[in-house]
Each structure stands twice: as structure tokens, then as C-alpha cells.
Amino acid sequence: MGKKSKNEKKVKGAEKTAAKMEKKVSKRSKREEEDLEAMIAEFQNLDAKKTTVVETTCPPPSARLSASISAHPEKDELILFGGEFFNGRKTYLYNDLFFYNIKKNNWVKSEIPNPPPPRCAHQAVVVPQGGGQLWVFGGEFASPNGEQFYHYKDLWVLHLASHTWENIKAPGGPSGRSGHRMVLSKKQLLVFGGFHESNRDFIYYNDVYAFSLDTFSWSRLSPSGTAPLPRSACLMTSTPDGVGVIVYGGYSKVRVKKDVEKGTIHSDMFLLKREGKDGQEKWLWSRLSPSGSKPPPRSGFSSAMGPAGRVLLFGGVCDEEEEETLEGDFYNDLYLYDTVKNRWFPGVLRGNKSEKKKRRRGKKGGAEGEGAEKKGEEEGEEEEGASQRPTEVIKEIIAEDGTVMTIKELIPGAQQEEEEEEGEEDDEDAWAPLVEPCARSSSMATVRQGKMFLFGGMFEVGDRQFTLNDFYSLDLNKMDQWEVLVEMDPKTQEWLDESESEEDEEEEEEEEEEEGVEEGAAAKGAEGEKESEEESEDEEGEDEEDEEEHPAVQEAEPLVDYQSRTEQYWTGLSRVNLGPDAKDKKVAKIALAMAKVFFEDQ
């Protein structure tokens, strides 16, 4: 036998390490999971009391991330299941089921007896057989304080025709995990990767399992070739011919010291291909080297299979690790991967007004413009018409608690503004600034009838997490603009700091003590309250005086000019508020937001 290559040794070593770590994780997490099993059993007992299907028209689902959204195989409907919500103090897991009617633009909540217990980071796949089925595997349940985790290894099917859930009990399946990927490949469900985490340990997987939809049985595949390194949250899609699957990116972490972990964002691509006849098939891993413009490295992106064998990738986050801090850059861009040509390209929205003008005016060179436009669609429109594209504008929204949320919008390019000045009054309202989903990760995406749908997700501002329930669609044939189906309302964003939790508990204890206080002490407390009110009024007066000291807004002065003129003042004020250790980027962002709030109040 010849000597093993470095790659083969590396893979074998990783497999041995993974096997040891899996045993270690299994032992340590057993006790934790036993505690959570009791909580899950309680949920199931409550669900077991439901004996009939209840369907009610309802508002859009509440804010959540890491749920699943799938296109109905036969109807113009979307199916949303499960998910997670965290408000800074408590973690909520869901097992609610919603159907969205695309034509009617309405939501229906479907309460079906004996559903899967609450979970997030699971996988759901629709298949057309039996009147349509939704298959759900794995996922994660967390304790309310977010410190204990339970990873499911159960398999469920929702029979869409009869509206019934069924728990499929088949041995030999994957171990409990979340963040894995599952796709339909011919008459099999293929499961790849994922992770399992306990309070002290974690493990990432790169194994592959197949579930036969004919025999309802699991089998673990043993592909030859060099497999991807263990990971979770990757992109995984079937090839158009159905003989294999493609894997891109993902995330994993390793422990470099006792209490130090290091995350890795993967950006490599692999093809897992089936060879041979049914019953005698073999599987082979091979690395892919796509052409075009790959997305910048990120994790937490959303993906869906679009028309013509093109895979869609939206958003995500790239975490920047610096000693004890972790900050993320969130994305709201769209990339497409052509599985036939093995090529990446960015998805650029065209807008709609310039198209109307070209068709109406019939300008010279219009045919060339159309040809270039088609070419731009395939090549990502990377260079053509850069000066005419809409300009990106950063919009700062201040939540009720003062937290700044950044949302990107687009305004018309220079040429579009010139065209408007030519006096075409009939077209004054034809252009509207392009609306885009704000940057986010862990949102849910799917495609139905040539439209991409995007729901929820999350983004972070400093130490705070904002979970979304907005809903968008994008016509993939026109690629003109996102349509807002449910708008995000920043006032609904809830975040409770741990410090607030401690303060609330102290207040409750104080209130209980005050209830037993004698009359004289109560009177004294009332006097103290009066003094407190007077102090509060004095503070308000001081605040008003402070506001008067801010740089005044000049008559007819635009916001941009005001921010530029007073930049030094607001930056200094922002630095004082945030402290000397705050990053310059964050200080500048808050300074702009403060200036804008003051400007709009004048």
C-alpha cells in the first residue's frame, strides 16, 4: 500500500477526534437533556389534549429566527413551522404552524393534534407524494435561560392533504443535532452535518444519512473522496439532474484553550454525487471550484432553490473576533449560484422607472441596452451602468429605548434625477426608492412560482439582538424590487437587559417590604416621593437646558449639511456617552443618529 496523503491523514485524524468528542459530549449532556426532556414532555401533554384541527385566520407570525418556511408542492401556499425568539432575558421556542396564501395575502394558523415539540434550527422538506408532505427532522430546544440545550433526532411528517402529524420511528438515523441540512434527492432525504452542544462541550458533524421515502428506513452513507470538514448552517441543494447534492460554506468552531473557542466561517464548495444503479449505488465527494463572484465569507445566510437551477443566497453575518469581544457585520445582499454553469454572481435589482422610460421614449441604442441588461443578469451587472445605479443611503431608526437600528435604502441615480427634471410630470411618481430587507441573519427563505419569499431573522446592535417578523417577496423574473408584505415596526422590538431583570427583582422585593410598613413610615415615604418628583422636575429642566445648548439648525438647512457642520460636536457627545473604549465606527454611527433625532425635533 502507498503512503497516505496529508489530506487523508487530516481527515482520518478529524474523524477520530470527532468520535472521541461525541462520546464526551454525550456523557456530559445526558443529564442536561434529561432535565429538558421533562419540560418537552409537558409541552407534548398539553398538545395531546387537542383532538381536532383548528384553523383560524390570523395576523402574521410573531418575530422569530431559525424557523422553517417551505413552499407547498401543489398549492400557492407557504408553510412556516417553529422557530426561536430571545428578548435578552428569556428564550422562547415555538411549534406553531402557519399557512400563507400567496394570492390572498393572508395567514392561517393551523392547530393540528400531536405536533412535534417546540424547536428551532431544524430542517423541513416538502415532497409531492401522498397529496403533499412536509418532512421535519432534528432541531434544538433550549431552556428559558438559554443555558441548557436538547438536540432532537426525531423525524416527523405532516400530511398536507389530511392535516395530520405523524412521528416516524425508524432506527439507525442521525444522532441528535441542529443546524444540519436536509434535501430531497430523488426518493431519498439526505441529511448532512450539523452540531450538538451541551453546557460545556460541542461537536460538529460532516456525516451523511439517507432516509428512503419508499421503505421508511435510514442508512448511513460512506462516500469516498475528501469530505467537507465538519460544519453546520451550510448551503445544501440538489443538483438539477437529481444525482447529487452541492454543499457550500457553513460554520464551525473549535476549542483552542480551556475557555477559549474560535469560530471558522467556511467558503469552500463540494459535490456529493451518486454513481451506479439503484441498490448498488456509491457516493463520491469532490471539491468544486466555481467561477464568477462568490459571496464574501459569512454564516447565518438564508438559501433557496430558484428557477433554472439557480440557488439563491441572502444575507448572513461575518463575525469579527477581537480578544474578548465579538462583533458582526450583517448583510442584506443577494447572490445566485448557477448549478449548471458552476458559477456565482451577485443579484442586482434593476428598479422600475428607468425601464419604463426606455420603453416609452425608444431611445437610440435601446436594443443594445436590452442586450446588455440580459448579459448583466447573467454576469451580475458588475460594471455596466455603475454611474446610473441607485445610491445606497443609510437610514437610522431609534427604538423607544434609544437603541439605533440601521436600515439600508436606495435612491435614484444621477441620470434618473436628470430625466425627472426634463418635465415628465406624468411619470413623477413612477420612481420610488428601492426598498430592501434590512441586513440580517437566520431568516427563512423559499421560492414559489418564480418569487422568492423572505421572513424574519435577526440582527444585532451592540449587545442587543433584534428579532424580526417582516416579510418580503422578490419576483426573480423581473428582479426589479422587493415587495414589502409585512413591514418591520421598530417600536415592537423588545429587549430586556439582564441588569434590568435584577433591578425588577429588587423593585419587587422593595414593594413587598413597603406593604408591611407602618403608617408613619408610609407618610415619610410619601414625602420622599414628593422630593423625588421635585428632583425629577429639576432634572427635566436641566435636560431642556442641555437641549438648548446643542448646535442650532439653520433656516432651510438640509439634514446632511447639518450633520456635516456639527459632526465634531455630536461625535464628542457620543464619545462621552459611550465611553473611551467604544469603537470609532460605533461612536460615529451614534453621533449621526443623535444629530438626526435633534434635527427632526426642531
UniProtKB/TrEMBL annotation:
Residues 8-24, 365-377 have a biased composition (Basic and acidic residues). Residues 1-34, 286-305, 355-392, 493-565 are annotated as: Disordered. It holds the Pfam family Kelch_KLHDC2_KLHL20_DRC7. Residues 355-364 have a biased composition (Basic residues). Residues 495-518, 530-549 have a biased composition (Acidic residues). It comes from the Eukaryota. PANTHER family: KELCH DOMAIN-CONTAINING PROTEIN, KELCH DOMAIN-CONTAINING PROTEIN 4. This is Kelch domain-containing protein 4.
